[in-house]
Amino acid sequence: MTVSRRTVLATATGAAVTGVAMTGASSTPAAAAAPGPRTLRAAADYAVEKLRAVAPTVTAFPVGTKFEKWTYSQNGDWVGGFWPGTLWMAWLHSGDDDFRTWALASAAKLAPRQYDTGTHDLGFLFYPSWVTAWRLTGDETWRAGALQAADSLTRRYNPRGRFIRAWGALTDPKNAGRVIIDTMMNLDLLAFASRETGDSRYLEIAAEHAKTAQRVFPRPDGSTPHVYDFDPDTGAPLGPNTVQGYSPTSCWSRGQAWGVYGFTTMYRRTGNREFLTTARRLADFAIGALGPDHVPVWDYRAPQQPYDIKDASAGAIMACGLLDLSAATGRGSYRDVALRLLTALAETCLTRNSARAEAVVARCTRNRPNEDGIEISLPYADYYLLEGILRVLRPQDVDRAIDLSTS
């Protein structure tokens, strides 16, 4: 399964961008600055240049910026998989083997987390880092660690409510019935484990969680809350809530993006068309909530929207999900919006104007209700921007890294 540098560089670039129509948005910056693959390739080139300058100084896991410089977690927090994942994307785009070396060294530091049963975020931690490393190198070490992480994740499954608990140690009753929309993005680690081991139990847990989320998160208009609470002892639903959204009745934009991407992925892994229908409902709401600049506000229903602070990370995640959804449905309109999102980020949200900046993408918001990280840079914005651009420019390479196949 090893991919040589020259094999990576041999794939066609740009052909997948044909048909980028900007109908109805000619007055927006995104529409005006969409000459085809050139804008996206320039953004990827800028990301590679930035990463090449910064990576030698990175000794832990970036979690966000302060005064434009990365701050770090030693164990990766919930975002540790995105730094090695970003380095892998840079390698795929550039063919520079330094990125491969840095990606492997960074991923190796996550090794203790494969046994972590205290978080649902094991997919975020191990899919873009260890699963990708396995797929691109064939080294059994990465496969084994990802499978152990999947085992740890299954321990958080509550069979009474048919959900994966989001937060807290398994022995801690606090938050024992709390489910969040973000978990949809951790389910693909379980699908990977089923494919690799032949044990259907992993995918069954993922599918049951997705069915539960599908039942309780989407509102009639396709919007979602951040949180839904259950009685952990009986599995009975208690109702919506929020931690990172404006309110239990609002729609946190990054959570909505996690849902679009996550439900589309679960459709690809199971063939269950209800998951595809749910992904479309969530996508249609989010598309309708976008402003003319195509950079999402942090919450689509916060009182000051559409003039509120932005979260570019929500746009990057949503773009990836919409590209996936377009491929799954055959609907070019989803791809058109994804290209508008990526172009808007490339034109208005990169750190090009700052010599100090260590990240690629600016204008991200981590946790608005806590006043934590307001319009800073975040590692997952850099990762998903590059993933989205390479889904357009180098789809075969992205498939090789993260598996875009349908079951």
Question: How would you characterize the overall build of this protein?
Answer:
This protein has 407 residues and is mostly helical. The protein is built from 15 helices and 7 strands. It has helices at 5-9, 29-32, 37-54, 82-94, 97-108, 122-137, 140-154, 187-197, 201-216, 253-270, 273-289, 312-329, 332-348, 379-393, 395-402, and strands spanning 61-66, 69-73, 157-158, 163-164, 178-180, 227-230, 237-241. The strands form 3 sheets. The chain has a 3-stranded antiparallel sheet with strand order 5-6-7, with no helix packed on it. A two-stranded antiparallel ribbon has the order 1-2. A two-stranded antiparallel sheet has the order 3-4. It is globular, with a radius of gyration of 19 Å.
Strand sequence of the main sheet, in spatial order?
A: 5-6-7
- Described by the principal axes of the CA atoms, the overall outline is globular
Biggest pleated sheet: 3 strands, antiparallel
Structural class: mainly alpha
User: Span between N and C termini?
Assistant: 20 Å
In short:
Helix content is 50%, strand content 7%. A 3-stranded antiparallel beta sheet has the order 5-6-7, with no helix packed on it. Strands 1-2 form a two-stranded antiparallel ribbon. The chain has a two-stranded antiparallel sheet with strand order 3-4.
How is the topology of this model organized?
Layout: H1 5-9, H2 29-32, H3 37-54, E1 61-66, E2 69-73, H4 82-94, H5 97-108, H6 122-137, H7 140-154, E3 157-158, E4 163-164, E5 178-180, H8 187-197, H9 201-216, E6 227-230, E7 237-241, H10 253-270, H11 273-289, H12 312-329, H13 332-348, H14 379-393, H15 395-402
Antiparallel strand pairs: 1-2, 3-4, 5-6, 6-7
Helix pairs in contact: 3-4, 3-13, 3-14, 4-5, 4-6, 4-14, 5-6, 6-7, 6-8, 7-8, 8-9, 9-10, 10-11, 10-12, 11-12, 12-13, 12-14, 13-14, 14-15
